[in-house]
């Protein structure tokens, strides 16, 4: 079976960690034998922008549309404003391809300790399902009277019934399929009295159809505190675009850091390609040094395999990562070691070969 894969390494540490992910992909392809990836790589990044004045060619989305899946690294570098690199590359892909589910596991891997003392591996194992196409990251708004004392900036939040119902439904369906008994929804309806009261209403409406699942609506500020004080409260957390974005960087921090956190931008209807990427950015502070942790990118390959129907390979990849962490000899600096990006990739590859 053939799968077409678009690879976009991006900027900064993106290409460095993507390199390790590609080694892993090649190995599982050889080991499994039952599928083949037709890979095309695209250099759409800030370098491309500086040359062409745009992050991708005009027909970029047209080109990507025909792929089965997309593997993404990270974009952003100091010479290009972040809102340009994000709004012209990642956000159009997520929005146009209706990747309305951003699936972000928060899981303390074997071999690692959480910075939260007294929290065990069982306490730290849940998923955040982030709305990925609308909400706070809408392009509606503007700036008036720029650079005057009367300047005004407005960024509207857009919550549609269609967009909100589908993400909340997905979260309940996910909980139900995984035999999860509790679902938490992030809100802030005490202060955001239009958009978030609407969000709460939809959550309550849909919860009626899942009466074996306990629903908790928590305000985002309290919820952030619970992530640190009581992470064992959570199994499935559903959140709007901005809230989910912030919560998952926090989630990554409580399980060992940004270098460990993968994600899937999923179009559940499979009408368009889904995209897999680490949740972190291009980390300009460590780019070019060869010391970035490739685990988030490699685990993203695992999530991609799961999405394509090879869940056993996702488990194998995760087991290899955990074996290396338990062994503890090879660790990148973010995990307190001195290993390079490729040392880490090679160690995972070695385990994968022998599992
Ligand atoms: P960042 O996630 O790139 O970095 C935050 C901190 O985490 C840095 O200290 C960095 O060194 C560390 N870190 C991140 N990934 C790591 C890894 N794999 N191994 C070891 N350490 C790692 O976030 P920041 O600094 O806010 O943004 C940098 C650039 O990335 C900006 O241009 C931003 O717009 C962009 N960005 C892109 C994203 C994407 O492509 N999806 C997501 C978030 C930010
Ligand atoms: Mg983020």
Automatic annotation (TrEMBL):
GO terms for biological process: L-leucine biosynthetic process. It comes from the Bacteria. SMART domains: Iso_dh. InterPro entries: ICDH/IPMDH, IsoCit/isopropylmalate_DH_CS, IsoPropMal-DH-like_dom, TTC_DH. Its cofactor is Mn(2+); Mg(2+). GO terms for molecular function: 3-isopropylmalate dehydrogenase activity; D-malate dehydrogenase (decarboxylating) (NAD+) activity; magnesium ion binding; NAD binding. Residues 4-348 form the Isopropylmalate dehydrogenase-like domain. The keyword Protease does not apply. It catalyses: (R)-malate + NAD(+) = pyruvate + CO2 + NADH. Gene3D superfamilies: Isopropylmalate Dehydrogenase (3.40.718.10). The keyword Membrane does not apply. Keywords: Amino-acid biosynthesis, Branched-chain amino acid biosynthesis, Leucine biosynthesis, Magnesium, Manganese, Metal-binding, NAD, Oxidoreductase. Its EC number is 1.1.1.83, 1.1.1.85. Pfam families: Iso_dh. Coiled coil: none annotated. Belongs to the isocitrate and isopropylmalate dehydrogenases family. LeuB type 1 subfamily. NCBIfam families: PRK03437.1, PRK08194.1, TTC. Homodimer. This is 3-IPM-DH.
């Amino acid at each position: 079976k053939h799968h077409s894969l678009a690879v976009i390494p991006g900027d900064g540490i993106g290409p460095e960690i993507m390199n390790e992910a590609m080694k892993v992909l090649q190995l599982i392809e050889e080991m499994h034998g039952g599928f083949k990836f037709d890979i095309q790589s695209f250099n759409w990044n800030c370098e491309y922008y500086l040359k062409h004045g745009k992050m991708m060619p005009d027909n970029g989305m047209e080109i990507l549309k025909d792929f089965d899946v997309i593997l993404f690294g990270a974009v952003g570098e100091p010479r290009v404003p972040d809102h340009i690199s994000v709004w012209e590359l990642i956000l159009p892909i997520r929005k146009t391809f209706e990747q309305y589910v951003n699936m972000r596991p928060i899981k303390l891997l074997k071999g690692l300790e959480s910075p939260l003392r007294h929290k065990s591996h069982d306490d730290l194992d849940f998923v955040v399902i982030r709305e990925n196409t609308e909400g706070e990251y809408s392009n509606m708004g503007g700036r008036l009277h720029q650079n005057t004392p009367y300047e005004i900036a407005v960024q509207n939040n857009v919550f549609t019934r269609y967009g909100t119902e589908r993400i909340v439904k997905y979260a309940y369906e996910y909980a139900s399929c995984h035999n999860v008994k509790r679902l938490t929804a992030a809100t802030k309806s005490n202060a955001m009295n239009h958009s978030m009261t609407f969000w709460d209403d939809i959550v309550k409406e849909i919860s009626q159809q899942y009466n074996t699942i306990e629903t908790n609506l928590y305000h985002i500020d309290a919820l952030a505190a619970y992530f640190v004080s009581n992470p064992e409260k959570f199994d499935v957390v559903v959140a709007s675009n901005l809230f989910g974005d912030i919560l998952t960087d926090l989630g990554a921090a409580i399980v060992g850091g940004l270098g460990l956190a993968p994600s899937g931008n999923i179009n559940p209807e499979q009408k368009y390609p889904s995209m897999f990427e680490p949740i972190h950015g291009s980390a300009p502070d460590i780019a070019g040094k060869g010391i970035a942790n490739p685990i988030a990118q490699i685990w993203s390959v695992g999530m991609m395999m799961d999405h394509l129907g090879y869940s056993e390979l996702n488990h194998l990849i995760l087991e290899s990562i955990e074996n290396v962490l338990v062994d503890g000899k090879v660790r990148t600096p973010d995990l307190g070691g001195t290993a390079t990006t490729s040392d880490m990739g090679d160690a995972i590859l070695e385990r994968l070969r022998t599992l």
